Amino acid sequence: MATVYKSFLSDDVISTQNLLHESIPITGSIVSGTYADTNIKNYSHGRFQSVYDYNWLSSSSNHLYDITVGFSPNSSLSGSAGSTEESQKIQIYNQMAQVLVGHDITGSILEFDRDGDFIAGGDKIRECVFLSFSRLLVKDEIKKGSMRLVIGTGSQGTPFAGTLKTIGDYGASTEYRVNSPAGEYGILYTGSAAAEGTGVGIIYYQAGIMVLTASVFGGGSAFSGSSTVSETLVSSSIQTMADSVRRRWEDLDFNNTVELNSTIYFCRINHNEFNYSSNPTYLSASQIKVKETSLEAPKSYITTVGLYSSTNELLAVAKLSEPLKKTPSNELTLRVRLDY
To answer: Domain end: 220, 239, 259, which one?
Structure first.
């Protein structure tokens, strides 16, 4: 009789994980220039701005990231005269903070911190630019240590003029933090120095969100016309602030990560197993079709492997590229891999 089912032993199954990475470049010419802002979507609510890689009305365009800004109710900008959309900017800051940083033991929303400690009295980041990257780009997460953003500090009318500044999560492949409800994150620095208290932002790897202190764009008066960064953050709309940030965008590069989990099943076929077939066409008038004489050894051809549950429910099917001959004189090991 043909053997129909065979149980796996503990040594027959192994699970593995592979991390696949893809390089993602977003150039300043795409962000502001090539498409004359037809790839920029502004919403009637005005709370954030979306950037696409092509005219956003086109069905072939891809969403790249969203830009928004906000400041803490504890910021020195809170309550400033002539403030525009202040309540919305505070709400955005609080929303981002409670999702990415969390709450303290009293239930109060914690603030972003340059060192990621999120403790009372730390060096807080209270005026922020938020970049939320599309899941299409980030995949499962951003690769630690791969984030590099180059921005200009010149006038927004000439986004590539003036000094260029590179921001990156230097050393984060081994120095990332885990005390966030949103997952792992790294501190962003200008240059390779990673001295305590010199962070200019935070990158949340699984969430795909970059938080930058607004002051990283410089303290001069050329951020928006004759206004400084702080003045623009107070008096301008979120959309205007997003435009000013985008027009200083020189280049951004990072590697995304796809977690490929695999379970490998080693289907071991001993010499005395699966030498017959349960297929009805295997027999004709009680005779095995593939045998010429009664003295010949039985043989079968393996074409398919089925993986079953403990209750004999078919869960997965693997097809061989060509039939494998099986007789009592040989043994086979078929390697079946399930990726998920």
So the answer is: 259
**Is 1 a residue whose pLDDT tops 50?**
no
Alpha helices, DSSP H, located in 32-179: 86-100, 135-138, 172-175
Q: No. of H helices and E strands in the chain? A: 6, 19
Give DSSP secondary structure letters for 17-73: EEEEEEEEEEEHHHHTTTTTTTTEEE-TT-S-EEEESS-TTSTT--EEEEEEEEE-T
Rounded to whole angstroms, how far apart are CA atoms 157 and 152?
11
Range of the domain at 287: 270-339
Q: How many domains does the chain have?
A: 2
DSSP label at 232? H
CA 75 remoteness from chain centre: 31
Q: What is the pLDDT of residue 91?
A: 97
Residue 255 and residue 331 share a domain: no
In a domain, 6, yes or no: no
DSSP, collapsed to helix, strand or coil, labels residue 286 as coil
Give me the mean pLDDT over the 40-69 stretch: 96
Q: Is residue 11 part of a domain?
A: no
Same domain, 275 and 252: no
Whether residue 125 sits in one domain with residue 168 = yes
Instruction: List pLDDT tens digits, range 241-265.
Output: 999 899 889 899 999 999 999 999 9
Task: Examine the fold and report which residue of 231, 259, 287 is the final residue of a domain before the chain moves on.
Answer: 259
Give the whole-angstrom CA distance, residue 198 versus residue 215.
12
- Amino acid 217: pLDDT: 85
Beta bridge partner(s), residue 188: 201
Task: Please tell me the pTM assigned to this model.
Answer: 0.82
Quote the Cα angle for 241-246-251, to 5°. Answer: 150
- Element containing residue 201 per DSSP (H, E): strand 201-204
Question: What value, to the nearest 5°, has the Cα angle with vertex 315 and ends 312 and 320?
Answer: 110
